[in-house]
Amino acid sequence: PQHVVLYPMVSKSLRNIAAGKDPLEGQRHCCGIAQLHEHHSLGYADLDELQKNPQPLIFDIELLKVEEPGSYQQDPWAMTDEEKLQAVPLIHKEGNELYRQGKVPEAASKYYDAIACLKNLQMKEQPGSPDWIELDQKITPLLLNYCQCKLQCQEYYEVLDHCSSILNKYEDNVKAYFKRGKAHAAVWNVAEAQADFAKVLALDPSLRPVVAKELRSLEARLREKDKEDKVRFKGIFSQ
Questions:
Q1: Confidence of residue 100 (pLDDT cuts 50, 70, 90)
Q2: Which of 74, 189, 205, 207 fits 184 for a cystine, CB–CB 3.0-4.6 Å?
Q3: pTM for the whole thing?
């Protein structure tokens, strides 16, 4: 048991990896014993129990497949810092190509992987420092591409969250306002959509034709919804 006292932390990292998350998510820079005191719960009841009462462990390992070195793309968590920086432009390019091919969910996954690489590096920098800001500026266009994919996948609330996080830092980001406006319109946040589209026009008047098209589409949907509501409510009150 004394040799596996830190295994719950290792197991939590492995479970993060299996879920596509950063293995160090939620941890701070300190030794393993300090981690034990820092986290009152690991988020898993079985690991919490094992942490309180260490037991001898037996592992069954199943070999799934063998791949030659260089024949596969490493997951972001397995890369060194240098490998992450080198991989980001390549993953970005792969995402763009998939998007052009109409493979939107696959493109979103690529953008997510590129963002994960940069986020992992950013975690090691002091927030607001020049290096942190430089990484954040690399993350932003990738996040906007990711939001474009999510718009097409009709995952509007995720778009709202990410675009708002961008605008909290970069108040003049036209693309973030435009994508957030489209997401607001899709979930019937009419006033918010109109406000975002107005901000787009204020920042870039050349986009007036595009914004006008979005507003016309929103107004048409509102008229159609109004008609449907009248028919629906008429049926209710006539009963």
A1: very high
A2: 189
A3: 0.70
